[in-house]
Design goal:
The chain has 397 residues and is of the alpha/beta class. The protein is built from 16 helices and 15 strands. The protein has helices at residues 5-10, 46-54, 73-78, 87-91, 104-109, 127-135, 154-174, 204-215, 227-237, 248-257, 277-281, 331-351, 355-361, 363-368, 379-385, 392-395; strands spanning 28-31, 58-62, 82-84, 95-97, 115-118, 139-142, 196-200, 219-223, 242-244, 260-263, 288-291, 312-315, 318-321, 369-372, 375-376. An 8-stranded mixed sheet has the order 3-2-1-4-5-6-14-15, sandwiched between helices. Strand 5, helix 6 and strand 6 form a beta-alpha-beta unit. Helix 7 crosses helix 8, helix 7 (154-174) packs antiparallel against helix 12 and helix 12 crosses helix 13 (355-361). The two termini are 48 Å apart.
């Protein structure tokens, strides 16, 4: 019987697709004590360490690394971590977890080809930092660059949530300041006019500041130049509030009446100054400014960087709180948040058989990579510091 065209196609040899087996790897993670000024957070909680150890991984910690986040060496030891007094042993581990980027002195004692997972804080880096990483052939991830499946940045979002909520709680403390505060309770008491809050910026910081202020019974006004952000904030709050684009006349009117002003703007390079000193001069005596944007320059012209030890100053009869890195003030909450984000990625890296396999399988993790065996793979960093860079997709595929 002659073969038909259809039967001829059936007789053609077909490719067989074989599943590539993933070989689980064991991680050896070092967690040094944070030495950067005002940094009190830690990357992994004792529960996270316990989870990693139960998966067959090792965690070596410098003694006292968790103290500023209210975690003792004993808690980590009971969770399965190894504790050492020698920071050189910790920095000798194949993988290092830090909140702050390693200092130049720390990079010197890191072994070549080490994997580093930390924040990068791009605006505080210098060209020499990246050149030292390249010389050591370091593979480095910035956890603020790691993306979720929905395209968001989980570490940035989580810490912004903390900063937004904290900004209102800080303002509530400052309003009862005995020396200069107005002695106002932040809330809506029967027969008493509610507190007026102006929030400049409708991102995650602004949204969580608004949620907290509304929860305490305040009147809230939010300003932003993005209608899309304002609409999203309104939808997320599920509560009708005053929103407006940033118009000097309207903003000045709101600032003159408010008790608290929150700076929650973000810019590509530097936060734009949207509140001039003249506007601040028109604010009520004893009003409070919390400029969360001070990390990137601040959106109030009168803002100056302060510290956790001396967080406020008074200018034009207005209390200013301009501490960068507000989440570090709530070190345990921030540490829990960072730990919850990083732990699943660490377990996934091991399950995939190491960093090379993990970045092939996980685009979000790949997005956090900025150095691969000493090769700069982040174009934005390369352009910023005039450094040669390569596309990671051309190196690992």
């Amino acid at each position: 019987m002659p073969l038909t065209p259809f039967s001829k196609q059936q007789l053609l040899p077909q490719e067989e697709k074989l599943e590539v087996a993933r070989h689980k790897s064991e991680l050896f993670i070092g967690i040094p004590k944070e030495t950067s000024y005002q940094e009190r957070r830690i990357c992994l909680t004792p529960d996270a360490v316990n989870s990693l150890v139960s998966h067959g991984h090792r965690v070596l910690m410098e003694s006292g690394a968790g103290e500023s986040a209210s975690y003792s060496d004993k808690e980590y030891s009971d969770a399965g971590a190894e504790i050492t007094q020698d920071p050189k042993k910790v920095f000798g581990c194949p993988m290092i977890l830090k909140v702050e980027p390693p200092t130049s002195a720390e990079i010197e004692i890191i072994n070549p080809n080490t994997i580093i997972i930390s924040a990068i804080q791009l605006k505080t880096r210098k060209k020499e930092y990246f050149e030292k990483l390249a010389k050591k052939k370091i593979t480095a991830f910035a956890f603020e660059f790691i993306k979720d499946d929905d395209g968001s940045y989980p570490a940035v979002k989580s810490l912004s949530e903390i900063a937004g909520t904290a900004s209102i709680l800080i303002a509530a403390e400052l309003m009862i300041n005995n020396q200069f505060g107005k002695g106002l309770l932040f809330g809506n008491i029967t027969g008493v006019a509610p507190t007026d809050v102006v929030i400049i910026g409708a991102g995650t910081v602004g949204e969580f500041a608004a949620k907290t202020a509304l929860g305490l019974g305040a009147n809230v006004k939010v300003f932003d130049n993005s209608i899309t952000k304002l609409r999203r904030l309104q939808n997320n709050l599920k509560h009708p509030i005053f929103t407006s684009t940033i118009q000097p006349k309207g903003l000045l009117k709101a600032l003159r009446r408010c008790d608290v002003a929150i700076g929650a703007m973000r810019g590509q390079n530097r936060t734009p100054v949207v509140v001039t000193e003249t506007m601040v001069e028109h604010m009520k005596k004893g009003a409070v400014i919390v400029d969360v944007s001070i990390d990137t320059g601040g959106c109030f012209e009168t803002s100056e960087i302060t510290t956790h030890e001396k967080p406020t100053f008074i200018k034009n009869n207005v209390i200013h709180y301009c501490v960068p890195n507000i989440p570090s003030r709530y070190s345990k909450t921030a540490s829990l948040s960072i730990s919850n984000i990083l732990t699943p990625y660490l377990i996934q890296i091991a399950e995939d058989g190491g960093v090379e396999s993990a970045i092939r399988c996980n685009r979000g993790l790949k997005n956090g990579l900025y150095f691969y065996h000493g090769i700069l793979t982040n174009k934005a960093i390369g352009d910023w510091f005039d450094l040669p860079n390569s596309d990671i997709n051309l190196i690992v595929f």
